[in-house]
Amino acid sequence: MYFVTGVGTDIGKTVATTVLAQQEKRAGNRVTVIKPFQTGRTATGRYPDIAWYEDYLNIRHEEMVVVEPAVSPHFALERAGRVVTKEAIVPKIEAIASPYDVAFVEGAGGLAVPLCKLDTGYFMTEQLIEALGASIYLVVETRLGSIHDALVTIDYAVRRNLPIRGIVFNRYDANDSMERDNVETVMTLSPVKRFATIPSFTTSKEMLDYELQWEEWT
Length: 218
What we know:
The chain has helices spanning about 15-25, 50-55, 75-80, 85-95, 125-130, 145-160, 175-190, 205-210, and strands at about 1-5, 30-35, 35-40, 65, 100-110, 115-120, 120-125, 135-140, 165-170, 195, 215. It is α/β, with parallel strands linked by helices. α6 (about 145-160) links the parallel β8 and β9. It has a single domain (about 1-215), classed as P-loop containing nucleotide triphosphate hydrolases (Rossmann fold), CATH 3.40.50. The strands form three sheets. Strands 2-5-1-8-9-10-11 form a seven-stranded mixed sheet, with helices on both faces. A two-stranded parallel ribbon has the order 3-4. The chain has a two-stranded antiparallel sheet with strand order 6-7. The longest helix has 14 residues, at about 15-25.
C-alpha cells in the first residue's frame, strides 16, 4: 500500500496519484485509489477528489469521512460534532484495499496534518500511515520555495521512520532553469534519491497517458 502526501495543500496530489495509478494499471496490476478524508463540496454538491477518481479512473468506493467545510479535517470534524479514530478508519481502508494488487491512499493536505482532535490528543496523518504500513510518495511542486518545503517534509518523515518510496516533482517545467535547479538541489540534499517529474497537463488524455520515468539521483 502506498500513501500519497505532499508538502502542502493544492500541490497536485490528486493528479500525481492518478498518474501513479495509471502506471500500475498499464503494468497489469489491479489498482484502486482511496481518499479516506475529504472536506469541501463542489458547486454541484460532489466532493472534489472523490469525484475526480470516479470521473477519470472509474473508481468508486463507499464514502469514508466526508465533511462539508473546506478546512483541515480535524477542524471540519470538530465543527460537525464528529469523531474519527485510527481504530475505526484503518480497517475500512484495509478492507477496500484487500482485493487489489496495488492501493494508493491519498492524504489530506501535507504530511503534518491532524485528522481528528481526540480527548487524548490529535490523530495525525503519520499515525494513519504507520497503522497502514504504507510507503510514501511525496508530491512536491517545483515553484519558488519548494526546496524548503520538500526538505522540511522529508526531514519530518525521516525523524518518524516513515519510509518514502519516491519524490514526485509536479507541474515541472524542464525549460525553466530555476525549476531544474530546485529539483537538483532537493535531490542533492535529500536522503531520498528516487524521483520522477510530472509536467503541467493541458488535457486529461495527456495526464492519463503520461509515463512516469523514475530516476535514481547520484
